[in-house]
């Protein structure tokens, strides 16, 4: 089952983000973000089976000064036990439908260089990589 995320999904989302994306996830931060989501420009969906969150997707409308509006995928993950069962495809489909409803016809996805399985997944669904880039961060 797919549905919009609720605040009380925060532990399940955090578990998937930790186990399957490798992020050090802080449950209280996920809860806070869900409580304060900007519904005018963000959407979070979850995949659920037997009352267990097995995947999630977070997307936002992304605007730049130099290009048309697009939807930026902030995160997509499916529990490894539930991969190859259509959950990721369905979650991405929900975001694509949401983008179209908002008059947006372009979705941007960034995926880590080492995530070869994710790259194959996106390519299989019609996404093409346009460039390679390096991400820079500076802790302040």
Q: Key terms for this structure?
A:
140 residues; alpha+beta; Aminopeptidase; 5-stranded mixed β-sheet; 4 helices; 24% strand
Structure description:
The protein is built from four helices and five strands, in the order βααβββαβα. By secondary structure, it is of the alpha+beta class. It has a five-stranded mixed sheet with strand order 1-2-3-4-5. The termini are far apart.
Biggest sheet overview: 5 strands, mixed
Shape: globular
Which value, in Å, is the CA radius of gyration? Answer: 15 Å
What does the oligomeric state look like here? single chain
Mean pLDDT figure? 93
Which regions contain 5 or more consecutive residues with pLDDT less than 50? none
Q: Look at the helices and sheets and give the structural class.
A: alpha+beta
Beta-strand content:
15-25%
Number of domains: 1
* SSE order: EHHEEEHEH
Spatially, the strands of the biggest sheet line up as: 1-2-3-4-5
What CATH architecture would you give? 3-Layer(aba) Sandwich
Given the structure, what is the number of helices? 4
User: For the terminal residues, how far apart are their CA atoms?
Assistant: 41 Å
What is the percent of helical residues? 25-40%
- CATH fold name: Aminopeptidase
Compact overview of the structure:
With 140 residues, the protein is an alpha+beta fold. The chain is built from four helices and five strands; from the N terminus they run βααβββαβα.
Helix-strand blueprint:
Layout lengths: L1 E3 L5 H12 L5 H9 L6 E8 L2 E11 L7 E9 L8 H15 L5 E3 L6 H9 L16
Parallel strand pairs: 4-5
Antiparallel strand pairs: 1-2, 2-3, 3-4
């Amino acid at each position: 089952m797919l549905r919009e995320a609720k605040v009380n999904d925060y532990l399940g989302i955090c578990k998937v983000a930790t186990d399957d994306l490798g992020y050090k996830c802080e449950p209280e931060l996920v809860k806070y973000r869900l409580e304060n989501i900007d519904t005018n420009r963000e959407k979070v969906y979850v995949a659920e089976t037997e009352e267990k969150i097995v995947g999630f997707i977070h997307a936002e409308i992304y605007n730049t000064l130099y290009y048309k509006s697009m939807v930026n995928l902030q995160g997509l993950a499916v529990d490894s036990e539930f991969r190859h069962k259509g959950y990721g495809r369905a979650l991405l489909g929900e975001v694509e439908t949401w983008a179209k409803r908002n008059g947006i016809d372009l979705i941007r996805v960034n995926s880590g260089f080492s995530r070869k399985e994710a790259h194959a997944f996106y390519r299989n669904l019609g996404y093409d990589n346009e460039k390679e880039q390096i991400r820079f961060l500076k802790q302040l």
